[in-house]
Amino acid sequence: MAHIEMSLLSIECFTNDGKLDADELGKLIALAERDGVITQEEISVLTSIIKRIKPEEVTADMRARLKALGNKFGI
Q: Are residues 21 and 59 in contact, defined by beta-carbon separation less than 8 angstroms?
Protein backbone atom coordinates (compact mmCIF):
# COMPACT_ATOMS: atom_id res chain seq x y z
CA MET A 1 0.00 0.00 0.00
CA ALA A 2 3.04 2.26 0.13
CA HIS A 3 2.54 2.96 -3.57
CA ILE A 4 -0.63 4.89 -2.71
CA GLU A 5 1.18 6.91 -0.05
CA MET A 6 3.98 7.54 -2.53
CA SER A 7 1.53 8.82 -5.13
CA LEU A 8 -0.10 11.17 -2.64
CA LEU A 9 3.27 12.44 -1.40
CA SER A 10 4.46 13.06 -4.96
CA ILE A 11 1.39 15.18 -5.64
CA GLU A 12 2.16 17.21 -2.53
CA CYS A 13 5.82 17.58 -3.55
CA PHE A 14 5.07 18.72 -7.10
CA THR A 15 2.28 21.10 -6.09
CA ASN A 16 4.51 22.63 -3.41
CA ASP A 17 6.86 24.32 -5.89
CA GLY A 18 6.33 22.41 -9.12
CA LYS A 19 9.53 20.43 -8.63
CA LEU A 20 10.79 17.33 -6.89
CA ASP A 21 14.04 17.79 -5.00
CA ALA A 22 16.50 15.20 -3.71
CA ASP A 23 15.08 15.26 -0.17
CA GLU A 24 11.56 14.68 -1.46
CA LEU A 25 12.79 11.83 -3.64
CA GLY A 26 14.48 10.39 -0.57
CA LYS A 27 11.18 10.46 1.32
CA LEU A 28 9.48 8.63 -1.54
CA ILE A 29 12.19 5.98 -1.61
CA ALA A 30 11.97 5.60 2.18
CA LEU A 31 8.24 4.89 1.85
CA ALA A 32 8.95 2.21 -0.74
CA GLU A 33 11.68 0.61 1.39
CA ARG A 34 9.80 0.89 4.68
CA ASP A 35 8.70 -2.76 4.77
CA GLY A 36 11.98 -4.12 3.39
CA VAL A 37 10.49 -5.13 0.04
CA ILE A 38 9.98 -2.87 -2.96
CA THR A 39 7.03 -4.08 -5.01
CA GLN A 40 6.52 -3.71 -8.73
CA GLU A 41 3.73 -1.22 -7.97
CA GLU A 42 6.16 0.93 -5.99
CA ILE A 43 8.72 0.75 -8.79
CA SER A 44 6.01 1.78 -11.26
CA VAL A 45 5.09 4.78 -9.10
CA LEU A 46 8.76 5.79 -8.77
CA THR A 47 9.23 5.45 -12.53
CA SER A 48 6.18 7.61 -13.19
CA ILE A 49 7.40 10.25 -10.75
CA ILE A 50 10.91 10.28 -12.21
CA LYS A 51 9.50 10.82 -15.72
CA ARG A 52 7.99 14.11 -14.48
CA ILE A 53 11.36 15.52 -13.42
CA LYS A 54 12.66 18.09 -15.90
CA PRO A 55 16.34 17.68 -16.86
CA GLU A 56 17.14 21.30 -16.02
CA GLU A 57 15.90 20.72 -12.45
CA VAL A 58 18.26 17.83 -11.72
CA THR A 59 20.93 18.79 -9.19
CA ALA A 60 24.10 16.82 -8.50
CA ASP A 61 22.47 15.28 -5.41
CA MET A 62 19.36 14.35 -7.38
CA ARG A 63 21.50 12.87 -10.17
CA ALA A 64 23.31 10.67 -7.63
CA ARG A 65 20.01 9.46 -6.15
CA LEU A 66 18.58 8.74 -9.59
CA LYS A 67 21.70 6.82 -10.57
CA ALA A 68 21.49 4.75 -7.38
CA LEU A 69 17.84 3.98 -8.13
CA GLY A 70 18.73 2.95 -11.64
CA ASN A 71 21.47 0.65 -10.42
CA LYS A 72 19.31 -0.89 -7.71
CA PHE A 73 15.96 -1.23 -9.48
CA GLY A 74 16.60 -0.67 -13.17
CA ILE A 75 14.59 2.54 -13.19
A: yes
Between the CA of residue 48 and those of 27, 45, 53, what are the distances in Å? Answer: 16, 5, 9
Q: Where are the chain's structural domains?
A: 2-73
Contact 10, 28 (CB under 8 A): yes
10-residue stretch averages of pLDDT, the chain, 75 residues long:
86 85 90 89 91 90 91 83
Q: Classify residue 71 as exposed, middle or buried by CB count within 10 Å of its CB (0-12, 13-18, 19+).
A: exposed
